[in-house]
Amino acid sequence: MPGHSSLSRRFALAGVSLLALAIAAHAQDQEATVLEDIVVDGGSGGVITADGYVGKSSATGAKTDTPFVRTPQSISSVTEDQLEDRNPQTLLETLAYTPGTRIGAYGFDPRFDSFTLRGFDMTYNGVFRDNLRQPGAGSSLYKTEPYGLEGVSILRGPSSALYGPAGAGGLYNLISKRPTEEALREVQVQHGSHDRYQGQFDLSGPLNEEDPVYYRLTGLARSADTEQVGVPDDRLYFAPALTWKPDEDTRLTILGEASRIETGGTAAYYMDPVTGKVADFFAGNPAFNDSVQNQGRIGYEFEHRLNETFVFRQNARISTLKTRADWAFAYQPNAVDPLLLDSSAGSFEERMTTYTIDNQLQAEFDTGALEHTLLAGLDLTKIRWRSLNGYGATPPLDTRDPTAGRYTAPIPYQTDDVQDQFIAGLYLQDQIRYDAWTFTLGGRYDHVSTDTENNDLVNNTTGTVEQRDNAFTWRAGLTYETPWGITPYASYSTAFSPNAGVNLATGNPFRPTESEQQEVGVKYLLPDSNTLLTAALFNIDQTDGLYYEVVNLDSGPANIQVQRGKLRSRGLELEASTSLDNGLSLVATYTYTQAKIIEGPAGTVGNDISSVPRHMASVWAHYAMPEDGPLHGLGLGAGVRFTGQSYDSDFNTARNSARAFFDASVDFDFAAIDKAYEGLKLQVNATNLFDRRDSVCSAGFCYRDQGRTVIGSLKYTW
């Protein structure tokens, strides 16, 4: 939309002006200092306690602020310092250097943040925001703005004992920026590849000197194209936050967001149906490829200590999302003229509203030599999702001029689906501490009610499906902190996830997908060194998953969802993170995953799961030059992400090649030149530095890796 692009560019120019004014004002006071970002909020939303790149504790693993070494599952984090150095632009880039996380299985696609963990899809039920569920359905998937995050906590493996319906891989807890007690003021402008212009700000501190009220305002505007014609990457984002802290026993934090995202209805390259090779031109129609998503959320985190024993917490949020898109897709050569590609098209509009509230009562007490942290909770989630869809045609794509737009008339909607889901979960957990031992035992009972209404707008017919699912899930884990700092652990955990819809071949509703995990590992927080080393061995079994399969119905063969089978994922994860006094910060990972189909469609049993590599590894390092050296003020960063071979489909007929992507950064703090420039920083980040763009296939469909992007940013903090 031209109006939006113009607004974004004006916002960026305004950011340049504000940046210049801030520098000029600050130059008058050379003795001013940059204040540390001190977070007011505690651990109720999963806030990470970190030192540089090293996460030490959060509430993600137990819903109580628990050291990582005492959490009896694999858990790690993306800290604020990592976000600062790598400057990720998407959630996938944010997670790129975390173990077990597979990004890029669908190539370049700015529409969705689709990824897997330990071989299992995390897109729809694996993302949480501030320890509250952030569900997805259809194309209704919340987009994450990394600039609005303080960090990410990742809990691996089935985790329904605390969080309810969830996948086998684990969960990612996205932690919003919160108000700070000390003043924080930051403005920034960015420019980069594909005509990318962005302005952003982050302001925080006390509202005044008398009242215990603190604020934070974070926002940005971006106008940008992408490597794909007809696919913009425009965004407006605004996130206000407010904390009221009348005393040390009471805290209320309000978190909000409003954002608008404009991109394409599809970003796919053309894939030859005979050879399976991916071309270098767009499969869609630039003149019929608009996608606009508006999303917002408002919620609060309340905590009050009743006495020395009891703490009550209540976290709640209302989220809403509306997305509308037009898409077109070229799928085969025309029978008369092979230089023309036949194309289909469609339009959809989806809306989703989610209400969620989590009530917790925590008690800390002793029984003899045992120290207890007992947590009881009740959380409720209400989801309403509506999807309107229409399908039609668009003029064929001319391969002699593939970037030309082709006029397509508006496509009317033909189906209208509405789904209401209610989730109620009651949970109890006890963390029992004896000497160096910590025993964690928790269980949860969930009731899920799902009502689906399918309306055929062409034939004026309606069908309804009612589903009621109940499940008990639990977790047991043990950790032991040895005198020399090494902490071995072992755990067993389970999860379930309800499935909407029915099997069209049988007419029966789908049963919930269930999973269980056995995990052993070791964590080592090196004494007198800000370094954390972790290793984990895991085995996950998932049953009653959903597959697409061609089935003979009364109307003929149809590709439908069926439920059967069992998947098993086994593997090893290694991670090291450190931030040393000499200016070096580093995170390194290695993952081995053997994800197998134990029971499934004919021809797939015993095969590897599509697009899950056996080997993945990554390392990112940032080095700040010494203060007493000639290059003081300069910082250098470099990283490599390796993805091993994987199969193109569950039938394992062909392989995706192994590949490595290189990233880099350089930054300079102008305070090293003169104190008058304190707070001014220039930074350049490059991802996929050598522009490797191989094809990658998942579930039989092929895509192309995202190419090189380079972004320069100028930031002023005071």
Structure explained in plain terms:
The chain has 4 helices and 41 strands. By secondary structure, it is mainly beta. It has a 22-stranded antiparallel beta barrel. The protein has a 5-stranded mixed β-sheet with strand order 4-10-11-8-9. The longest helix has 26 residues, at 2-27. It is globular, with a radius of gyration of 26 Å. 46% of the residues are buried. Mean pLDDT is 91; it is low at 1-43.
Write the layout of secondary structure elements.
Elements: H1 2-27, E1 49-51, E2 54-58, E3 66-67, E4 75-78, H2 80-86, H3 91-94, E5 101-102, E6 116-117, E7 120-121, E8 127-129, E9 132-133, E10 149-156, H4 160-163, E11 170-176, E12 184-192, E13 196-206, E14 213-223, E15 234-247, E16 250-264, E17 269-271, E18 278-282, E19 290-305, E20 310-333, E21 340-367, E22 370-398, E23 415-434, E24 437-456, E25 461-480, E26 486-497, E27 513-525, E28 531-543, E29 546-553, E30 556-563, E31 566-579, E32 584-599, E33 615-624, E34 634-643, E35 646-647, E36 655-656, E37 659-669, E38 680-687, E39 695-698, E40 701-704, E41 709-717
Parallel strand pairs: 8-11
Antiparallel strand pairs: 1-2, 2-3, 4-10, 5-6, 6-7, 8-9, 10-11, 12-13, 12-41, 13-14, 14-15, 15-16, 16-19, 17-18, 19-20, 20-21, 21-22, 22-23, 23-24, 24-25, 25-26, 26-27, 27-28, 28-31, 29-30, 31-32, 32-33, 33-34, 34-37, 35-36, 37-38, 38-41, 39-40
